[in-house]
Specification:
Blueprint: E1 2-5, E2 14-17, E3 27-37, H1 39-45, E4 61-69, E5 81-84, E6 87-89, H2 95-98, E7 109-110, E8 122-126, E9 131-132, H3 139-142, H4 148-158, E10 164-168, H5 172-183, E11 187-192, H6 197-205, E12 210-213, E13 222-227, H7 234-241, E14 242-250, E15 271-274, H8 280-293, E16 299-303, H9 307-316, E17 322-326, E18 334-338, E19 344-348
Parallel strand pairs: 10-11, 10-13, 11-12, 13-14, 14-15, 16-17
Antiparallel strand pairs: 1-2, 3-4, 3-8, 3-17, 4-5, 5-9, 6-7, 16-19, 18-19
Helix pairs in contact: 4-5, 4-8
GO molecular function, one term: zinc ion binding
Organism: Granulibacter bethesdensis
Family: Belongs to the zinc-containing alcohol dehydrogenase family.
Length: 351
């Protein structure tokens, strides 16, 4: 197998070749067809998340095909298409697992962080944390659903049923969840980096009711806001934008420090909550709904060897939608483009 590996925090990923992994008891071996590039991968490679298992192969938005079955695995067959998400293992015994909150497990493992992930041609995963993806849909287009979609879905549920929903940071997760929220009949207010007119047009094309910079005030109070951008300064900004009794959901696994703000922004029963990881129930609910609705993803593809460039372009905001690594260059219809930051992009017409 081939893979891109992180050996030292903050250093570029390195290309390696090693023997194909052997699935252990209860595991599957999966031939990777596509792996999304998530902002969490940036937090891992930049050393912003503590104690990764080094060396580690990043990547947790994995779509692939079952290649081998470990001892005791049932319910899967060779050649079946599956998805592998961030949550890779839970203990099943701690108070959180026993109470249905396995996303808060005291002894979890995470794909691409504490166990090898999908920036590779092969990966192993516990069968209990692997999800059949069925036949419809392109491998590349499905990959972002495995984290951007799942965390976005959990965040949307936590935001409540309000009609006016603000999305701060209109990237991979927001462009998926905006489609779900619109299907639910909500009005979307999209907040992008100040001055990013292209992303604002992208949001409006997806049906947003309003789009503007994250430093702007929406034309009316929001019922709730979800922060996908890992910028702590947006928390008080979002609190200013929500109505009395509204709430702000922080969806990222890492965020810069939240600055102090006057109590008046929180008063009148406004709330700030965070989302941590996901549960298998989240995955089953969301994947079924996304396939039912026909969620479409806008994808920028990169060959596996270009993982460092994909991460750099994500950091710089060089594309709308999501980035996906493919083991073989040339997967999908690609257009060679330049972004405003001088990056060379390969845009797959997924949306």
């Amino acid at each position: 197998m081939q893979a891109m590996v992180l050996t030292v925090n903050g250093s570029p990923l390195e290309w390696i070749e090693r023997p194909d992994p052997v699935p252990g008891p209860g595991e599957l071996r999966v031939r990777v067809a596509a792996c999304g590039v998530c902002r969490t991968d940036l937090h891992v490679t930049d050393g912003e998340l503590p104690n990764p298992r080094l060396p580690i192969i990043p990547g947790h938005e994995i779509v692939g095909y079952v290649d081998a079955l470990g001892e005791g695995v049932s319910g899967f067959h060779i050649g079946e298409r599956v998805g592998i998400p961030w949550l890779g293992h839970t203990c099943g015994a701690c108070p959180y697992c026993r109470s249905g909150h396995e996303n808060l497990c005291d002894a979890p493992e995470f794909t691409g962080y504490t166990r090898d992930g999908g920036y590779a041609t092969m990966v192993t995963a516990e069968a209990q944390f692997t999800f059949p993806l069925g036949g419809p849909g392109n491998d590349v287009d499905l990959a972002p659903l495995l984290c951007a979609g799942l965390i976005g879905w959990r965040s949307l549920v936590m935001a409540g049923d309000g009609k006016r929903l603000g999305l701060y940071g209109f990237g991979a997760a927001a462009h998926i969840i905006a489609q779900i929220a619109r299907w639910q009949g909500r009005d979307i207010y999209a907040f992008t980096r100040p001055g990013n007119l292209a992303s604002q047009r992208f949001a409006l094309d997806l049906g947003a009711h309003w789009a503007g910079g994250s430093d702007e005030t929406p034309p009316e109070f929001l019922d709730a806001a979800i922060l996908f951008a890992p910028v702590g300064a947006l928390v008080p900004q979002a609190l200013r934008a929500v109505r009395k009794g509204g709430q702000v959901v922080c969806a990222g696994i890492h965020m810069s420090d939240i600055p102090s703000f006057p109590y008046s922004l929180l008063w009148e029963e406004r709330k700030v909550v965070s989302v941590a990881n996901l549960t298998r129930k989240d995955a089953l609910e969301f994947l079924s709904l996304a396939l039912q609705i026909g969620v479409k993803t806008q994808i920028t593809t990169y060959p596996l060897r270009d993982a460092n460039r994909a991460l750099s372009d994500l950091r710089a905001g060089c594309f709308d939608g999501a980035a996906v690594l493919v083991p073989q260059a040339g997967t999908g219809k690609q257009l060679d483009l330049s972004c405003a930051n001088g990056c060379r992009l390969h845009l797959k017409q997924g949306y």
